[in-house]
Every structure is written in C-alpha cells, then in structure tokens.
Design goal:
Elements (H helix, E strand, L loop, with lengths): L1 E7 L2 E8 L2 E4 L6 H6 L1 H14 L5 E2 L4 E3 L8 E5 L3 H6 L10 E5 L4 E2 L4 E4 L6 E2 L2 E7 L15 E8 L2 E2 H5 L4 H4 L6 E9 L10 E6 L2 E7 L7 H9 L9 E3 L21 E6 L3 E9 L2
Parallel strand pairs: 6-17, 8-14, 9-19
Antiparallel strand pairs: 1-2, 1-5, 1-14, 2-3, 3-4, 6-7, 10-13, 11-12, 11-17, 12-14, 15-16, 15-18, 18-19
Length: 282
C-alpha cells in the first residue's frame, strides 16, 4: 500500500491510494496508530481499501502532510554512497556507519516552502531513500532487521553548507526550519521486495542534478539499522535515511546552490516524487 497523511476541509486524515485516488482510513487516528497496530492494523487498512465504495480524493484535491508529521527520531546516514564519497574531496570513507539527526522543527511536507535562511549562501539539496521503523528494535542482528521495518519513504536532506562545514557544525547546518521534507507517502515493505536496487534522482527547476542508485551504498540497510539499534532503541514510526548519491550542489563545477524561487523535486523509484520550493527569509 501507499499510505498518505492528508488534509481536506481543515480535517487531517490518513489514507491509502487506490487507482490514483486517496481512500480515507477512519479507524486510525494517525499514521503512528496504524504503524503501532502491526499486522492486524495493516489487515484492517487493506479491508477498508478493498471494500470502500467511496470515490475518495484525487491528489490535487488534498493538501499532503508529511506521512508521519512528528517522527520520534529522524536519523540520516552520512557518506553512504561511493559516488558521493568520490565527489567530496574532503570526505573520509567511514569504517562504521555515520549518522546525524534531523530535529522535529526541520520536518515538513510535500509542496511546502523551504525558507532560504539569511545565515547561508550555500543552500543545498540531497535526495534520500528513507526507512520507517515498524516495531521496537534494540540490539537487533542484521539478519532480523528487515522484519522490523514498516515501509519506505523519500527524505530531502536540505543543508546550509557554509554553516555545516564551518567548524563541522553538522547539527546546525542540517536543522534550520523546514530542512527535512518527507513524503509524499509511505510504501509498505511488501510492495518493494528489493529496496537495495532503486533509482534516486533530484531536479532543480526541471534540471536533473542527481541520478543514482542505492546499489551504490557503502553500508547495506541491515548494517545501518543494526548499527543504530546497538546504540539506541528504535521505535515504530522512527525514520532512518540512508544517504545520497553524487550530484549535490556543493561539489558541482561550479557549485550550484539553491536560491529563492527555485523548485526542487526529489524522487525514489517505486515510492514517488517530493516537491518543494525555495522562498526568501523575510
């Protein structure tokens, strides 16, 4: 299933896509309720979708929210594509998975503005394939990771490079308001049996900037999740992102950073396209 959080007439719903339309799932208060409900909740959602007589809503009739508006944790993997390592002259190949956090203020949804902060002249884009945790994971073996996942989504890791690279301020450079668009949906794991071979692309004003595949990962998905779960307990609804391929603005020749008025789209095969636009900080 493709699952969405959306708003109609000032009411927020979750729903599933059927034949290009969104069918509401009124038995769930929010996406976290569905995720925490496990197999029984997914069966209920499937039954509602299959039995629905309502026509539902087209995507242009609704306002999309982040699929999980307030994830408990958003953790992103740094330097996890060989191509991204090769394009960055200052990068070191990590011996272990490397992570940084995106904070709640950074999370935003499809179609929402990304404010260009006055503190940066180097606003950058990164398309990322992200995982939604489905059950509590702690000290989990790599062989057990996939059974603990709920689904997959797209994350746009926006960065202020001049803030990030100055004194290695990665937390500040990655966490201005709106720097983590997520969406447009969550695709349940059964729909993507081979999540390690998906194409990823980003576009700025229609120009292709990144064009890669997560077959280029440095660390596999089970390795990433197992490494995190060895340190902290991962909870249902946590979002774990897996890095970006080559083509980011900072390492192009010449560098190509975002500016007010730009429209940015990031997409992952089998999941969808997440679009936002850049506005000036007033």
């Amino acid at each position: 299933m493709k699952l969405y959080t959306f708003e109609v007439d000032h009411q927020v719903h979750i729903g599933a896509e059927r034949d290009g339309r969104l069918i509401a799932l009124p038995q769930f208060a929010d996406m976290l309720a569905l995720i925490r409900g496990g197999t029984a909740a997914l069966e209920s959602a499937h039954a509602t979708l299959n039995d629905a007589t309502q026509l539902g809503y087209t995507l242009d009739q609704v306002k999309l929210h982040p699929p999980i508006p307030q994830p408990g944790k958003v953790l992103c993997s740094g330097v996890n594509y060989h191509s991204h390592f090769l394009e960055n002259p200052n990068a070191k190949m990590p011996g272990e998975p490397f992570f940084f956090a995106k904070l709640p203020n950074a999370v935003t949804g499809p179609g929402q503005p990304i404010v260009h902060p006055k503190l940066t002249q180097q606003l950058d884009y990164e398309v990322e394939f992200a995982v939604v945790i489905g059950r509590t994971l702690h000290n989990v073996a790599e062989s057990e990771v996939m059974a603990g996942l709920f689904g997959y989504t797209v994350l746009h890791d926006v960065s202020a490079r001049d803030v990030q690279f100055k004194d290695n301020q990665i937390t500040l450079g990655k966490n201005f308001d709106g720097f983590a668009p997520i969406g447009p949906c969550i695709v349940t794991v059964d729909e993507i049996p081979h999540p390690e071979t998906l194409a990823l692309r980003s576009y700025v004003n229609g120009e292709l900037r990144q064009n890669g595949s997560n077959a280029d990962w440095v660390f596999t998905l089970p390795r990433l999740i197992s490494a995190l779960a060895a340190v902290m307990t991962l909870q249902p609804g946590d979002v774990i992102s897996t890095g970006t391929p080559a083509g980011v603005g900072a390492f192009r020749t010449p560098p190509a950073f975002l500016k007010a008025g730009d429209r940015v789209a990031v997409e992952v095969e089998s999941i969808g396209r997440l679009e936002n636009y850049i506005v000036a900080d007033t």
